[in-house]
Amino acid sequence: MDKGKDNYIKVPHGMKDLFPEEKLLWSEMEKAAREEFELSGYLEIRTPVFEDTRLFIRSIGETSDIVEKEMYTFGDTEGSAITLRPENTASVMRAYLENELHKSKKFQKYYYIGPMFRKERPQAARLRQFHQMGIEAIGSYDPLLDVETIKIATRVYDRLKLSGYKVKINSIGCEKCRPGFRELLKKELTGYKDDICELCQMRIDRNVFRVLDCKKKQCKEICYGLSRIETHICNDCQEHFTTVKNTLEDINLEYMVDPNLVRGLDYYTKTVYEITHPSMGARDTICAGGRYDNLISDIGGPHIGAVGFAAGMEASLIALVKTRNKEFKPDFPPVRDAYIVSIGSETRNYCFRLLNTLRHSGISADMDYECRSPKAQMRMANKVSVKFTIIIGLEELGKGVIKLKDMQTGEEKLAEDTDELIRFIRK
């Protein structure tokens, strides 16, 4: 006896089931991403979903919100700590370094699509298991590569016909010029310590750049009056950023410079960027990235330039649905070639053999497994939008023929054998 929904074991807080109806739009996103990534020379890499915890502490930053509050960390059987990946850039860099690719083929282009994990407060597009699709270009300091990654992200969204997105960019300097600006920000923000939010009060000493990224209204207003980093970055960073801006203009990619744009991970240097969409409200970022020239050295390797982005698939999905049509629902199920209707229990084994013959020939086919009446089977054939219905009763079985009905025209044909049936369907 069913005791009711309240007694069922439920999905963990912040997790979500993905059903086939939604998966069709996910597949469309994945297909667009893969095609654009591979068109630009990026190859897929798959890293483990958990890593040595030290990887994320070193790369993301010990005082970052992710490391302090959001990571899923467990004890391993060998006594070490492992963490479900909260992002994938560090994992890709670890794989690159561990396999010593900097010695054999320094310049590499990778892409990934998969789940990440953070203990965030669940809300729309922010789940505790969420998904990202991203690229990493490793082994170059060329600012043209920054532009390439931005362009690829916009091409994915253009392919998906997502309108209304905005590209925001900034330069956050490098290890030579950022320390001086960090101290200047601390000094300026100290005078506003009682006016900013409690979290930003702690950030002044721990990670002052994160104050610039705060979404609270009072903090945003204060930040707009602070010194701008563009007047404090070194000549090298200035030249790099100027090339990025000029090249974006050369390829007619619209952008805006946002002086308060920073990234929440410690490893970013020089160029940072976000793609935002107005349908997402205050948390409007659907894709974010930038350059991280110190990341590989931070995890024990040599100094190697790298740049890339990660697009939030849940956020992108919401923006897509809202942009295309508020009532948008993808077609489901996908059109099949044929549905076999079995009339009488005596024909079921024959129908099953025929089903497997059709599938072996590359024809998408299905049949009833609930022992429904022929009328109910015909209704199902209509519901799943097949091109043809194959009807097998004792009469057809006795004559050695196969009845085929075209579901668009209503026309019926008799095939003498399976070879003729397959020719009819393919034609």
Structural class: alpha+beta
Second CATH tier, the architecture of the largest domain: 2-Layer Sandwich
Reading off the top of the CATH hierarchy, the class of the largest domain is best stated as Alpha Beta
Main sheet makeup: 8 strands, mixed
- Topology-level CATH name of the largest domain: BirA Bifunctional Protein, domain 2
Number of strands: 16
Cα separation of the termini: 50 Å
Let me know the CATH homologous superfamily of the largest domain: Bira Bifunctional Protein, Domain 2
Helix coverage percent: 25-40%
Radius of gyration: 28 Å
Name the overall outline: elongated
What is the residue-averaged pLDDT? 89
Q: Strand order within the widest sheet? A: 1-5-6-11-10-9-7-8
Strand content: 15-25%
How many separate domains? 2
